[in-house]
Structure formats: C-alpha cells, structure tokens
Amino acid sequence: MTDSLITAPLKRLTTRAPGLRLSTDPGDMEHYGRDWTRRWTPAPLAVALPSSVEEVQMIMRWANEEGVAVVPSGGRTGLSGGAVAANGELVLSLERMNRVLDFNAVDRTLTVQAGIPLEAVHNAAREHGLAYPVDFGARGSCSIGGNIATNAGGIRVIRYGNTREWIAGLAVVTGKGDLLELNRGLIKNSSGYDLRQLMIGSEGTLGIVVEATLRLTDPPPPTNVMLLALPSFEMLMKVFAAFRERLGLEAFEFFTDRALHHVLAHGAQKPFDEVHPYYVVTEFAVGDEQLEAAAMAAFEHCLEQGLVSDGVISQSDAQAAQLWRLREGITESLARWRPYKNDVSVRISAMPAFLAQTQALLGREYPQFDVVWFGHIGDGNLHINVLKPEGMDDGEFVGHCEQVTKLLAQALERHGGSISAEHGIGLVKKPYLLGTRSEAEVEVMRGIRRVLDPNGVLNPGKLFDP
C-alpha cells in the first residue's frame, strides 16, 4: 500500500483488520474501480481484498463508522456500471475468496465462495459427474457473486432458466455488517420471507454475497450444434417455433451479419461462402437416430418454407466449438469499439412485434452508426450494441445513444418489457427503471434497502437514488 495515500480512516481499517490486503496503488485502483462499461473514470479511495467472511464484516462495520461508501467487486464483467467506483468509495473485491468449500453428493449441491469464477464452478461440478448449467461467454472471468448479484442468464436459459433457479442457499453480509445465512440449502422452506431470492439480482445494494450453495444437475444429454442462415429478420421467430416444436432445445441464439463481420475480423472461421443478413446458432439434444432425423427434418422444413437460406450441422466437438465461437466471440470482438449497449427483454409472445418496431426505430435513429444485434431469442432477450465511430467525442456519442434509449424504453413499456434483461440497472439504466417498475415498487425497494443498509454505505447511487 502506498504510504502517501493512506488516510486516517484507512489506517483505522488496517488496525482493525491487520491481515487485510489493502491497495492504494494507482494501477490497482484503476483496474478494480471500473467494469466493462468504461464510461466512468475510476477514483476509489482504495481496494480491499478480504480473504474471509470475518474480514468482509469488519470492512462493512468500519465503513458505517467512518461513513465510507463500499462498492462490491466480482469479475467486473458487468455492462451497467454496477461495479464502478468513481467517487472515493472503497472497492471490496472478492477475488481472493475463490474456493470450493463443500460438495454434497446426496443433496447434489456445491458450496463456494463468491469470488470463484463461473468456469471453475463448471469444472468442479464436472469432477463429480454433475453440471452447473448456467453459462455464458464470460465464464472464465465473471464470478459467481456477480452472477448472483445480477441474476445472470446467458445462453442456456431456454432450457435451465436464470441463476436464481440454481441457488439453494446464500451467506450474505449486509450493509450493517451482519451475516445472514439464507435458506441453508433447503428445497422446501415456507418459514417466512425468502430473503435469498431478494438478494439475487439486488446488484450489491442490499448485501455482499460471500458464499453460495449451488444446485447441480445431471450433465446435459449429447447435443449437436447447427448454424442457420436466414434471408430476413421476419423469419426469425418462425424458425424458432419450428425448431422448438421438433427438438429439445438447449440454446437458440441469433446474430446479424455485422456481428459475424466483427467476429471473423477477430479470427473466427468463415462458415459460408455467401454473406447472409441474419444467423442462428442452436444447440439441441441428440443421441439416437430419431433425434438426429428430427433435427434434419426441422432444417429441411425451414428450407422448403424459405425460412432459412443455408445451414451447417457440427460433425465434431471441434466444429461445434467453432460454430459457437461465432456467437460467443461477439462481445470480445466489439470491445475495441467501446460499444453503447442495450440489454432488453419482452415476453416471447411479444417478441415478433417488438423486434419489428425496434428494427425500424434503430434504422431510423442510428443511420450513421454500426449497430450490432445478437440475443437469446428463446427467452426474449435482445442485445443491441452501437459502435462508437473513430474520432467521435465520447460525450457526443453517449448523448445521442441515450436519446434513442429513451425511445427504446418507451417501446419496451408498451410491450410490457424490461430495460435490463440480465445486466442489471447499475448507473447506466437507472433513468429508465420506472419504465419497468412502478413508483410503488421502487419505494418498497428503497424501504428494504434502508433496513439492510441504514447508513447508505453499500454501493450508493446504483439501481436507484435514495
């Protein structure tokens, strides 16, 4: 820790927790003080890296006494500014709390510390012949605590649901520094409010998840992957309906020709000789001749109806990985452009009308920008990435994008949708929360927050204002 940057409150923290790793190194503060939005200049007081629940509790009690705000930090792969520390907050990083604590073969649960990466959870479950089915492209860097804080979904929601379906129990340190043990792995528990579910999706504003008991399941059945080329946007939901009717879908992901362009420029392998306007990557259960025949029948039906123009089915695990890279590599391939991102959702039944309206809106309002679409069509979740042109001022770019987001939020409200499907509200989407939640709901949220964090030290300014 840089001596010249040690303030009196930090000295009192190190006295209270002498073993706590604390950093005021400028590089560390920049690294830990931001997430993937890159829209705010990091300016934390310091970075604390506790290694135990007790140290987390000590930090929160110190924060209340000193009046210092605390920003919980996981893998910082968020896209809504939820982990940003730009106003002298203490960043509380859980990355050192990254161990598997217990496996219970009878209950089929895995208890882990919150800082463990999602990919490590996948590997630990696999070692016991089981699976933790929540999955997305950032699996190697995102943390379980962050996944829980945003109720992350990902690419297999269509089969397995969101994170909250797989949380059997939580240990949470509240804004006051109290430790809550929530649900304790029970399947049935009707003894009052389920505070575990309240914490899931709360974006670090009610408490800091320090441990989680995760439900595991059987490994997925043998699957195959198919890449489909679509001639027009209007065909998308019809193709989804045809495949869902005939197959046991594990995933159904769409992306545009612009998304493919950027992924190919980033090193992926070109799937077709021709360029098509829209693509779908779908994964489905196979394992016997009947299921494989059903997959081909679904493709042939779509081809005969003019719903798809071309397609390729994986013949090996390596080819399946290549096809998935076309979808999972999108976010990484766009990073250099610092895109403005919208992450929205509507009911699946409302998706056709919403997609048509949104396509027209973006075509009209963003003619000068490269707009990259992709999404989890099977669960009504659409990602819209607007790329900043070279040389354009950041403020001018964000200002224009936010004007369009207001129109998008209005369209979502008309269709009963949400401005945030899986990235959270954070700082970015806070102005649009009332399009998804009523004034009465938000006031209830404020009341809950005041009970668990009466001094307002935990992730202030995120989700909604006091």
From TrEMBL:
Superkingdom field: Bacteria
Keywords from the UniProt entry: FAD, Flavoprotein, Oxidoreductase
Domain called FAD-binding PCMH-type: residue spans: 40-219
Pfam short name (any one): FAD-oxidase_C
Record-linked InterPro entries: FAD-bd_oxidored_4_C, FAD-bd_PCMH, FAD-bd_PCMH-like_sf, FAD-bd_PCMH_sub2, FAD-linked_Oxase-like_C, FAD-oxidored/transferase_4, Oxid_FAD_bind_N, Vanillyl_alc_oxidase_C-sub2
PROSITE patterns: FAD_PCMH
Cofactor: FAD
Similarity annotation: Belongs to the FAD-binding oxidoreductase/transferase type 4 family.
Record-given protein name: FAD-binding oxidoreductase
Organism in which the protein naturally occurs: Lysobacter arenosi
Upper lineage: Bacteria, Pseudomonadati, Pseudomonadota, Gammaproteobacteria, Lysobacterales
